[in-house]
C-alpha cells in the first residue's frame, strides 16, 4: 500500500480514537450542568476547552484528510507533507492534553484575549496552550499550502476556480471538488495567517510586555475561528460533490452557477465573521451591518446551489443506499438545518437575545455533529469499504443511522430550546433564573449517549474494514 | 497573572512619577457624573457688550462649555482660564462646533470687569468666547445644577473659596463636567467630543503601550478614526491572495 | 412541551435521588456554589482551601462573609482585605446566599466527612438552586421554563421560524429520498429552471428580512440623549455599578459603588459597560428569566447599552461571556421602580 493511503488510514484511526473521547467529555459537561456528578464541576471549564479545541481540530483534519484523498484522484499531493501533518497534529494534541489535563488550562477554544493571562492556571499552562496552537497552526498551514501546490501543478488559477465557466465556457471539465477545495484552501491560508497574527500578538504581550487592543484581537480570533470551521464544512462538501454521484449513478458536474456561487463564497466568507462581534457595540457599525449582509449572502449561493444540486442528483435516481450515501445525504440535511439556525442568529436584532445563549452551540453543533461529522464519517466508511469490499448489512446500518439521527437531533433540540429560553452557554451550573437549563442538559446527555452508542457501532463497522485494509 | 505583573513592572515607574495627576483624575471622575444629563435653568445673562440674552440663546446656536469665574480672583481663576484657553487651542481650536461662556459669580463684577478679563486673556477678539454676568439668584440656580459652590473667605472679603469647573452643555443638558484647575489634555478632548456628540468608546486602554490600536481620535476634526489595528484585519486575506498568486504563478504542466 | 417537562421532572427526580441521596444540604450547596473556587482539603483553588476554616475564623465573621463578601470588602474588613490581596485581587462574589443556607454550608464545613442523613426530599437537588434569592431581595426562581407568553417576542419568532424551516427541510429531504425507490431519468433543464426560481425568490426573501431587521439594532443612537447614565464595571467575578467611570482597578477601590441600583421605569438608561480584566458579558434578564438586553464588557472599551424598562421589578444581570472558573456565578441585579 502506498504512503498516501496509509496516511488516510492513520487519520481515520486518529479521528475514531479522539472523537469518542471528546464526545464523552461533552456528555460529562451536560451531566454536570444537569446537577449530576458535582465532583467533576471543577473540571467543567478545562474539559470544555479540550472538547472545543479538540472537536474543531479533529474535524478540520478529518475534512482535510478526506479532501486530500479526493485531490489525489486528480493530481499529486506530497505524501511526505501528509505524514508531516500527522506528526505535527499529534505533537499539538499532546501539548494540548498536557496543558489542560495537568495545567488545568481553561480559556475556551478561542482563548479570547486576555483570558489566557487572567485565569487561575499556571503560566506554563497558558504558554503550552499557545505553543500547541502554534504547532497546529503551522502544521496545517504547510499542509494547506502543499495541497494548493498540488492543485496548481495541474490547474491554472482560472481553471482551479472555475472562472472559465463564469466566462461561459463548458470546457475543460474541472471537478467541482477541485473548485471548492481551492476556495477552501485559500480561505484556510488566510484564516491560519489570522491565527498566526493572534499568536504573535499574544507572544508580544508575553515577551515584550506591550499591551494589546482587545477589540483587534477579538476580530482576528473570530476571523480565524469562524473561517476555520466554515472551510472545514466546505471541504466536506467538496468530498460529497465527488463521491455522492458514484452512489446515484448520475454525474454532478461544475457549471456556471456552481462556479459563481463558490467564488462568491470566497469573497464573502471573510466578512461573515463580524457576526461574532455584534454585541461589541464599539465595533464600527458598518462592520456590524456588513456582517449581517455577508452572513445572509454566504448562505444563499453555497447552500442553495449545493443542496438543490444534491437533491436534484438524488431525485428519482437509481440510488445505491449504503452507510456512506445515507450519511452524506443526512449530512447535507444537517448542514441546511444548522445553516438556518446560524442565519437566524446572524440577524443583529435576534443576536441581542441569542448571543452567548445555548442557541450558539445549538446551531454550530447541528452543522458539525449532523453535518461535517457525517460527511467525514461517510467518506471514511466509503474509503475502507472500497478497499476491503466486505459484505454489508443495510439493516444494521439503518440501526446505526437511526441512532445517530435520533440521538443527535434529540441532543440538538435541547440546545435550541435552551437557547430560545435564554439559558446561557458555557455555564458549569445554572443560577436560579435559568435553573430549568439543568433539565434540558439531562435530556441532552441521554440523547448524546444514544448518539455515542451509534458512533460505537459505526466504529465497529469501519474498524473491521480498516483492519482488513491494513492487512 | 504573570502578564499583569510584567505590566505593573512597566507601568509602576510611570505611575510613581505622576501620583498627583492620578489623584486629580479620581476627583474629576467622581464629581463629573453628578450633574450628568440634567437640564440647565435658562437664566438671563448680560454679556460684555452690554446685551442681555437668555443663556439658552447660546446653546440653541451650538454647544457650550460653561465655566464660572470672577475677575478679582487671586487664586485659581486666572490660571484656570489660561489653561482652558490653551486646552481649547491644543484640541484644535474652537472651530465652529462649540463656544465658551465664562460666567462671573461675583455680584461686584461689572461690564468693565468682563471686558478687562477678556482683554487680559486676549480673548476680546474671539467671537466664540463670551464673558457674562447674571443676578445672584440666577447664579445660585446654575451653580446648584452643575454642582458648583463658592463662599467668601472669612479673612479676606474680596476673595472666594471655590472649585474650578467646566460644564459641557448640549441642547440645554449637561453632557460632561470637568473639575480641577489643571485640565488634563485627554479629558478635555473627551469633553469636547462629547459636547460635539461624538462618543469616545474608551477610557484608558487603548493606551500608551498598546500596539496596533483599532481607533484613534483626530484632534482637528474631532472624529473617531480607524487606526492601524483595523487595517491589520485585512492583512491575512491580502497575504493569502499574494501566496495564492505565487503558488499558481507557474503554468501547470500540460 | 409540557408533557416533556413532566417526564423530565420524574426523570430528574430519579437522577437527583441517585446523585444526592447521601449528601447533606450544606454539601449540596457547597458543590453548587463554592466548588469552582474552593476545595475542602484539596489545596488552594481560586480561593482558599476551606478545610478547618470553622476553627480558623469566627463563626459570625464566616456567616456574614458567606452572605455578603462584597459589603465586607467595601467596608475594608481587615481579614477580607488580606484575603483579597492573598488571592490575586480576585474578590469573593456575592452568591446571594440566605442566612439558613449559610448555616448549612458552615455545618458542612465544620464536619465535611460526616455522612449526612438521607434527606428524603429528593427535590432539593434542584430546589437549592431555585431557592436562592436574588440580591435585590425578591426571590424569583425560574425552575419553570419560560412559556410562549413570557419567552419574548424575538425569541418566539426566531424559534418557531427555525422549527418551521427545519421541518420543511426534513420533509423535502425525506420526500426526495423516497423517490429513489422509483428510478427515472429527470429533466435537468426543468430542474435548473426551478433552481433559478428558488435562488431569486430566496434572494428576495433574504433582502426583505435584511431590510426589516437591520433597522432594529441595539446600537446607541447619537441623536437621542439618555435620561440617566450608569457605569457598570466588570471584574472577575463581579460587577460594580457606579455614577462615575472607572478605568483601572485602582480607581475601582476609590469610587463609591451603587450598592442597590434602582432605576425609574420608562426612563432611557444608558449603561456604560467596561471590564478591568478579561472580556465579560453584561446581560440583563427580565423577571421571567429571559434575556432582555445585553452587551459585552471588553477591557479598554466602553460599550453603551441603552435600555428602557417598562415593567417594575428585580432584573438579574448575568455575565454571558466565559471569563474563568467562577464565570457562572458572576452576577448582580437591579431594581426597576
Please compute the radius of gyration of chain A using only Cα atoms.
21 Å
- As for the number of domains of chain A, it is 1
Order of helices and strands of chain B: HHEEHEHEHEHEEEEHEEEHH
Shape of chain B: elongated
CATH class of the largest domain in chain B: Alpha Beta
Order of helices and strands of chain A: HHHHHHHHEHHHHHHHH
Please state the structural category of chain B.
alpha+beta
On the 0 to 100 scale, the average pLDDT of chain A is 94
Provide the gyration radius of chain B in Å. Answer: 24 Å
Description of the structure:
The complex is a heterotrimer of chains A (471), B (254) and C (337). By secondary structure, chain A is an all-alpha fold. In chain A, 78% of the residues lie in helices and 0% in strands. Chain A has helices at residues 3-33, 44-74, 79-102, 115-118, 123-154, 157-160, 163-166, 176-208, 214-248, 256-272, 285-314, 323-345, 348-354, 359-388, 394-420, 437-470; one strand at 211-212. In chain A, helix 1 (3-33) runs parallel beside helix 3 (79-102). Chain A is globular, with a radius of gyration of 21 Å. With 254 residues, chain B is of the alpha+beta class. In chain B, the strands form three sheets. A seven-stranded mixed beta sheet of chain B has the order 2-1-5-4-3-8-9, sandwiched between helices. Chain B has a two-stranded antiparallel ribbon with strand order 6-7. In chain B, strands 11-12 form a two-stranded antiparallel ribbon. By secondary structure, chain C is α+β, with helices and mostly antiparallel strands. Chain C is built from eleven helices and nine strands. Chain C has helices spanning 2-20, 25-34, 53-56, 59-67, 69-74, 78-86, 99-110, 124-131, 153-178, 188-213, 249-252, and strands at 228-235, 238-242, 261-263, 268-275, 280-285, 291-297, 303-308, 313-318, 331-336. The longest helix of chain C has 26 residues, at 153-178. Classes of the chains: A mainly alpha (471), B alpha+beta (254), C alpha+beta (337). Chains in contact: A-B, A-C, B-C. Strand 1 (211-212) of chain A pairs parallel with strand 10 (210-211) of chain B, so a sheet runs across the interface.
Name its key features.
heterotrimer, A: 471 residues, Cytochrome C Oxidase, Chain A, 16 helices, 0% strand, globular, C: alpha+beta, Cytochrome Bc1 Complex, Chain D, domain 2, Immunoglobulin-like, 2 domains, four-stranded mixed β-sheet, 11 helices, 9 strands, extended
Amino acid at each position: 500500500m502506498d504512503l498516501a493511503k496509509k496516511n488516510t488510514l492513520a487519520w481515520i484511526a486518529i479521528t475514531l480514537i479522539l472523537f469518542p473521547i471528546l464526545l464523552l467529555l461533552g456528555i460529562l459537561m451536560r451531566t454536570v450542568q444537569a446537577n449530576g456528578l458535582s465532583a467533576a464541576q471543577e473540571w467543567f471549564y478545562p474539559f470544555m476547552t479540550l472538547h472545543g479545541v479538540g472537536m474543531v481540530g479533529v474535524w478540520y483534519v478529518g475534512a482535510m484528510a478526506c479532501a486530500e484523498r479526493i485531490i489525489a484522484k486528480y493530481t499529486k499531493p506530497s505524501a511526505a507533507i501528509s505524514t508531516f501533518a500527522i506528526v505535527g497534529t499529534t505533537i499539538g494534541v499532546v501539548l494540548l492534553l498536557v496543558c489542560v489535563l495537568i495545567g488545568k488550562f481553561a480559556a475556551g477554544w478561542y482563548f479570547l484575549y486576555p483570558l489566557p493571562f487572567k485565569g487561575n492556571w499556571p503560566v506554563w499552562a497558558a504558554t503550552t496552550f499557545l505553543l500547541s496552537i502554534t504547532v497546529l497552526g503551522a502544521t496545517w498551514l504547510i499542509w494547506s499550502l502543499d495541497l494548493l501546490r498540488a492543485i496548481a501543478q495541474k490547474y491554472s488559477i482560472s481553471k482551479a476556480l472555475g472562472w472559465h465557466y463564469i466566462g461561459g465556457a463548458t470546457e475543460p471539465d474541472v471537478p467541482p471538488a477541485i473548485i471548492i477545495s481551492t476556495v477552501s484552501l485559500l480561505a484556510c491560508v488566510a484564516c491560519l495567517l489570522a491565527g498566526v497574527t493572534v499568536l504573535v500578538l499574544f507572544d508580544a504581550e508575553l515577551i515584550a510586555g506591550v499591551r494589546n487592543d482587545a477589540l483587534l484581537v477579538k476580530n482576528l480570533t473570530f476571523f480565524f475561528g469562524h473561517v476555520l470551521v466554515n472551510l472545514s464544512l466546505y471541504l466536506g462538501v467538496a468530498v460529497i460533490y465527488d463521491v455522492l454521484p458514484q452512489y446515484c449513478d448520475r454525474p454532478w458536474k461544475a457549471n456556471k452557477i456552481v462556479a459563481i456561487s463558490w467564488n462568491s463564497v470566497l469573497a464573502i466568507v471573510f466578512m461573515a465573521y463580524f457576526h461574532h462581534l455584534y454585541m461589541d457595540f464599539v465595533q464600527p457599525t458598518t462592520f456590524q451591518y456588513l456582517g449581517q449582509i455577508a452572513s445572509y449572502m454566504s448562505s444563499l449561493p453555497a447552500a442553495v446551489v449545493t443542496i438543490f444540486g444534491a437533491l436534484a442528483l438524488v431525485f428519482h435516481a437509481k440510488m445505491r443506499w449504503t452507510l456512506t450515501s445515507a450519511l452524506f445525504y443526512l449530512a447535507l440535511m444537517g448542514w441546511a438545518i444548522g445553516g438556518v439556525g446560524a442565519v437566524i442568529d446572524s440577524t443583529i436584532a435576534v443576536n441581542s437575545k441569542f448571543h452567548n445563549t445555548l442557541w450558539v452551540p445549538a446551531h454550530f453543533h447541528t452543522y458539525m455533529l449532523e453535518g461535517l461529522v457525517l460527511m467525514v464519517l461517510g467518506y471514511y466508511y466509503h474509503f475502507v469499504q472500497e478497499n476491503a469490499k466486505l459484505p454489508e448489512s443495510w439493516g444494521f446500518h439503518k440501526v446505526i443511522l437511526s441512532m445517530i439521527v435520533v440521538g443527535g437531533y434529540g441532543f440538538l433540540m435541547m440546545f435550541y430550546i435552551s437557547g430560545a429560553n435564554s439559558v446561557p452557554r458555557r455555564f458549569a451550573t445554572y443560577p436560579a433564573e435559568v435553573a430549568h437549563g439543568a433539565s434540558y442538559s439531562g435530556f441532552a446527555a441521554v440523547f448524546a449517549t444514544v448518539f455515542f452508542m451509534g458512533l460505537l457501532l459505526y466504529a465497529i463497522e469501519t474498524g473491521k474494514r480498516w483492519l482488513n485494509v491494513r492487512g | 497573572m504573570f502578564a499583569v505583573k510584567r505590566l505593573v513592572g512597566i507601568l509602576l515607574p510611570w505611575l510613581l512619577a505622576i501620583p498627583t495627576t492620578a489623584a486629580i483624575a479620581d476627583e474629576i471622575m467622581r464629581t463629573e457624573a453628578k450633574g450628568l444629563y440634567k437640564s440647565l435653568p435658562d437664566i438671563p445673562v448680560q454679556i460684555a457688550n452690554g446685551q442681555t440674552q437668555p443663556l439658552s440663546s447660546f446653546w440653541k446656536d451650538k454647544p457650550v462649555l460653561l465655566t464660572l469665574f470672577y475677575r478679582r480672583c487671586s487664586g485659581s481663576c486666572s490660571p484656570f482660564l489660561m489653561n482652558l484657553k490653551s486646552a481649547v487651542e491644543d484640541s484644535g481650536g474652537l472651530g465652529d462646533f462649540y463656544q465658551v461662556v465664562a460666567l462671573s459669580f461675583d455680584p461686584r463684577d461689572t461690564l468693565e470687569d468682563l471686558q478687562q478679563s477678556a482683554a487680559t486673556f486676549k480673548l476680546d477678539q474671539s467671537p466664540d468666547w463670551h464673558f457674562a454676568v447674571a443676578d445672584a439668584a440666577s447664579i445660585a440656580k446654575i451653580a446648584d445644577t452643575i454642582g458648583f459652590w463658592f463662599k467668601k473667605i472669612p479673612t479676606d472679603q474680596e476673595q472666594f473659596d471655590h472649585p474650578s469647573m467646566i460644564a459641557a452643555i448640549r441642547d440645554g443638558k449637561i453632557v460632561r463636567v470637568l473639575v480641577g484647575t489643571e485640565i488634563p489634555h485627554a479629558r478635555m478632548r473627551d469633553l469636547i467630543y462629547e459636547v460635539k456628540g461624538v462618543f469616545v468608546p474608551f477610557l484608558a486602554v487603548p493606551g500608551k503601550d498598546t500596539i496596533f490600536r483599532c481607533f484613534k481620535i483626530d484632534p482637528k476634526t474631532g472624529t473617531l478614526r480607524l487606526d492601524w489595528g483595523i487595517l491589520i484585519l485585512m492583512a491575512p486575506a491580502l497575504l493569502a491572495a499574494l501566496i495564492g498568486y505565487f503558488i499558481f504563478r507557474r503554468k501547470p504542466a500540460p | 412541551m409540557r408533557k416533556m417537562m413532566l417526564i423530565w421532572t420524574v426523570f430528574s427526580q430519579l437522577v437527583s435521588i441517585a446523585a444526592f441521596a447521601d449528601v447533606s444540604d450544606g454539601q449540596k450547596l457547597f458543590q453548587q456554589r463554592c466548588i469552582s473556587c474552593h476545595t475542602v482539603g484539596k489545596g488552594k483553588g481560586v480561593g482558599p482551601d476551606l478545610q478547618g476554616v470553622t476553627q480558623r475564623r469566627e463563626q459570625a465573621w464566616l456567616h456574614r462573609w458567606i452572605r455578603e463578601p462584597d459589603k465586607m470588602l467595601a467596608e475594608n474588613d481587615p481579614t477580607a482585605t488580606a484575603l483579597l490581596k492573598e488571592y490575586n485581587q480576585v474578590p469573593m462574589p456575592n452568591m446571594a446566599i440566605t442566612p439558613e443556607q449559610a448555616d448549612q454550608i458552615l455545618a458542612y464545613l465544620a464536619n465535611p466527612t460526616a455522612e449526612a442523613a438521607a434527606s428524603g426530599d429528593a427535590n432539593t437537588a434542584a430546589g437549592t438552586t431555585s431557592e436562592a434569592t436574588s440580591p435585590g431581595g425578591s426571590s424569583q426562581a425560574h425552575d419553570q421554563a419560560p412559556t410562549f407568553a413570557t419567552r419574548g417576542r424575538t425569541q418566539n419568532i426566531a424559534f418557531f421560524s427555525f422549527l418551521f424551516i427545519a421541518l420543511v427541510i426534513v420533509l423535502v429531504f425525506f420526500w426526495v429520498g423516497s423517490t429513489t425507490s422509483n428510478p427515472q431519468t429527470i429533466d435537468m433543464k426543468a430542474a435548473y429552471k426551478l433552481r433559478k426560481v428558488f435562488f431569486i425568490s430566496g434572494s428576495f426573501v433574504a433582502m426583505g428580512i435584511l431590510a426589516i431587521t437591520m433597522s432594529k439594532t441595539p446600537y446607541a443612537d447619537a441623536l437621542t440623549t439618555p435620561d440617566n447614565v450608569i457605569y457598570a464595571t466588570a471584574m472577575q467575578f463581579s460587577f460594580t455599578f457606579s455614577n462615575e467611570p472607572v478605568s483601572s482597578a485602582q480607581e475601582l477601590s476609590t469610587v463609591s459603588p451603587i450598592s442597590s441600583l434602582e432605576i425609574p421605569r420608562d426612563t432611557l438608561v444608558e449603561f456604560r459597560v467596561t471590564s478591568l480584566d478579561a472580556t465579560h458579558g453584561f446581560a440583563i434578564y427580565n423577571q421571567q428569566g429571559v434575556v432582555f438586553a445585553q452587551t459585552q464588557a471588553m477591557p479598554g472599551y466602553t460599550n453603551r447599552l441603552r435600555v428602557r424598562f417598562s415593567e417594575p421589578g428585580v432584573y438579574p444581570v448575568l455575565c454571558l461571556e466565559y471569563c474563568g472558573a467562577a464565570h457562572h456565578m458572576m452576577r448582580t441585579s437591579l431594581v426597576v421602580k
